[in-house]
Design goal:
With about 475 residues, the protein is of the alpha/beta class. Helix content is about 40%, strand content about 15%. The strands form 4 sheets. Strands 5, 6, 7, 8, 9, 10, 11, 12 and 13 form a 9-stranded mixed sheet that branches. It has a 3-stranded mixed sheet with strand order 2-3-16, with no helix packed on it. A two-stranded antiparallel sheet has the order 1-4. A hairpin with a 4-residue loop joins strand 2 and strand 3. It starts with 12 loop residues before the first strand and ends with a strand.
């Protein structure tokens, strides 16, 4: 990756929602995956300043860098006004940023007025006609998919940054440019805005997408890295450092789906930072028909097996501690009392292990961990593992009861978390479309696994918490 002094953008930070500093002490719990940090006196002062929103001590960088990389802190650069980039005093964004849009069959919805835009016509049946003072159309002879089309556009880019914007996306040009503010950190290679379903689009599917879209990764900023809360971003809109993309060879053109996830993970493996910035939003069009919508979900699922093969350990349908697996395995097997005993015993063991935390805080962490694991088990049974669940339900009455209970919990829990009063979507409709979504995606996962002749994308992963290295805690000051 590029050289230069490492520094976090600006000095304003947001605390991740996982952040806890019990009793205002020297131990911090937070990040994704969840970790423990032990602070010295200087570190406590830095976090006290961030909690109060006051100015940071001059020597904050070693700690804030560490906590940003762990997902405990999130930089909040100023997005208003011109972005001030390293080594450049110009306010002319056109000299810094180029837009590349891969397109097939339909002209792009977004065409920049002040930025050079390269529309890559991916061998559409009829050549695309796109007009604009700063628009270049590059037509490919053979359809190669979105990754290949983006790579072809990247070759033509002469600015230090590039924005990939899909043809079915709308975004404000000034807000797109504002994402450049994150690149004052020389380690940042990619920044993605929040992708929301277009609220002006009519229809039931469009309303469902407003509350349950796989492209919408929420309102909270995040680092993007495998096995974290935001482990991927769609390439519907991403702004990238051209140097970083070229250093890893751009998108993998062999992947028709999941090429955006693969790109992010290869950037992270090369020690670049990737950021999710939900203060900027782009609007995405929902598929027009139920068939196209379900086919899209199926295709997303087919990408799981190729990604699992390329990035060992980064993708699993179910990831939890072995003790949580024992708890819920007992419940599924019809022995809930055994599960309760295992849960209580592991909570007690964790209290003894994490003596630096108040017992109440440790019990809270253990309880929430087991409950969250239960949500994952239910979701996985009905999504990636639904063929196994269905087969078990055919031959076993107990399995039918377990699957039904998991489905009810899955739907009720999702409705509770995603229901919005401003989106007129009935609960039965939500239940039906969520189920179709899960079945289509899961079918894609199994089809991709069969194609790859590998079950890696279907296998669970069990991990210890806290991590065994360093006794589960890390000095952070």
């Amino acid at each position: 990756m590029s050289g230069g002094t490492e520094r976090v953008v600006g000095t304003r930070f947001a605390l991740d929602s996982s952040y806890r500093r019990p009793s205002s002490g020297a131990t911090v719990v937070g990040g994704s995956p969840l970790r423990l940090f032990t602070l010295g006196a200087a570190g406590v002062k830095v976090l006290e300043a961030i909690e109060r929103g006051s100015s940071l001590p001059a020597n904050h960088a070693p700690l804030t860098e560490r906590l940003v990389d762990a997902g405990v802190l999130h930089p909040l650069p100023e997005l208003e006004g011109p972005a001030h980039l390293p080594g450049d005093a110009s306010d002319n964004i056109a000299t810094q940023l180029t837009v590349v849009t891969p397109a097939y069959g339909n002209a792009p919805q977004f065409v920049a007025t002040t930025l050079r835009t390269i529309v890559v016509d991916d061998a559409s049946p009829q050549p695309l006609k796109v007009t604009g003072a700063n628009v270049d159309v590059l037509r490919l002879d053979v359809n190669g998919g979105p990754g290949a089309a983006r790579n072809a556009g990247l070759v033509q880019v002469t600015t230090p940054f590039v924005a990939f914007v899909d043809s079915d996306v709308l975004i404000d040009e000034q807000e797109l440019s504002s994402l450049l503010a994150h690149f004052t950190d020389p380690r940042v290679a990619l920044v993605a805005p929040r992708i929301v379903a277009d609220p002006t689009q009519p229809g039931t599917l469009a309303r469902f997408e407003q509350v349950h879209s796989p492209l919408d990764l929420g309102r909270e900023p995040a680092r993007i890295a495998p096995t974290t809360r935001v482990s991927y971003v769609p390439a519907a809109v991403v702004v990238c450092r051209v140097e970083a993309l070229r250093s890893i060879g751009g998108f993998d053109a062999r992947l028709r789906f999941g090429e955006d996830v693969d790109l992010v993970w290869r950037l992270v493996e090369a020690d670049w930072r990737c950021r999710y910035e939900p203060r900027v939003e782009a609007r995405h069009q929902t598929r027009a028909t139920g068939r196209d919508w379900a086919l899209q979900r199926y295709r997303y699922g087919t990408s799981a097996a190729p990604l699992a093969a390329r990035h060992r350990g980064a993708l699993a349908p179910l990831r939890m501690s072995g003790w949580s697996a024992a708890v819920w395995g007992s419940v599924v097997a019809g022995a809930p009392l055994v599960g309760a005993v295992v849960g209580a015993a592991t909570t007690g063991a964790l209290v003894r292990k994490l003596r630096q935390l108040p017992a109440r805080e440790t019990m809270r962490l253990a309880g929430l961990g087991h409950l969250f694991a239960g949500r994952l088990v239910a979701g996985t049974m009905l999504r990636a593992w639904w063929p196994l669940s269905a087969a078990a339900a055919v031959v076993s009455r107990r399995a039918r009861r377990v699957v039904l209970a998991a489905w009810v919990f899955h739907i009720v829990d999702g409705w509770r978390r995603e229901h919005r009063a401003d989106v007129p979507l009935a609960a039965p409709t939500y239940a039906l479309l969520t189920t179709v979504d899960d079945l289509a995606y899961g079918a894609g996962v199994w089809a991709g696994a069969a194609r790859e002749r590998s079950a890696d994308a279907l296998l669970p992963r069990f991990e210890a918490w806290p991590p065994r290295q360093r006794g589960g805690t890390e000095p952070a000051s």
